[in-house]
C-alpha cells in the first residue's frame, strides 16, 4: 500500500511539473521581480457611438466615460440617466425590463438587486488591441 502511495505521489509530481513547463504567462519570459513595460491605459472618450454586439445576450458596452460614477448600495449614478422615469428626458437608452425581474421572474418597482451594480456587466468601450492573440469571430449577424 505504501508503495502505491509513493508511486502515485511521484506520478502526480511528474505530471504537474510537465504541465507547469508548458504554461506561459502574459509576462512572457520575465521573472516576477523584473520591471515590465505596462501598456498605457487608454482613455475612454467622453461620448462615442455605440459599438455593435458580438454575441447573443451580450450586455451593451457603455459609450461614455464612467470615471467617478458611484454605484454602491445607496447610490447608482447610472440610473440618473437610464432609469425608466428619466430616460426620455436624457435621451439615454432605457434600462432593460429584464433588470426589473427578481430571480422568480416577479416584476419589481425598482431595479432588481442582482442587476443593480451595472458596471459588473456593462463596461466602458474602447477600441484597443487584444491582449492575447485570438481568432474570435462575432456570431451570426453580430459585429456588422
From TrEMBL:
Main location as per UniProt: periplasm
Record note on modification: Binds 2 heme C groups per subunit.
InterPro entries reported for this sequence: Multihaem_cyt_sf, NapB
UniProtKB keywords: Electron transport, Heme, Iron, Metal-binding, Periplasm, Signal, Transport
A GO biological-process term: anaerobic respiration
Positions of heme c 1 binding: 64, 78, 81-82
Stretch forming the signal peptide: 1-21
GO MF assignments: metal ion binding
One Gene Ontology cellular component annotation held by this UniProt entry: periplasmic space
Protein's cellular compartments: Periplasm
Residues at which heme c 2 binds: 99, 118, 121-122
Similarity comment: family membership: Belongs to the NapB family.
Function: Electron transfer subunit of the periplasmic nitrate reductase complex NapAB. Receives electrons from the membrane-anchored tetraheme c-type NapC protein and transfers these to NapA subunit, thus allowing electron flow between membrane and periplasm. Essential for periplasmic nitrate reduction with nitrate as the terminal electron acceptor.
Subunit structure: Component of the periplasmic nitrate reductase NapAB complex composed of NapA and NapB.
Protein name: Periplasmic nitrate reductase, electron transfer subunit
Provenance organism: Enterovibrio norvegicus
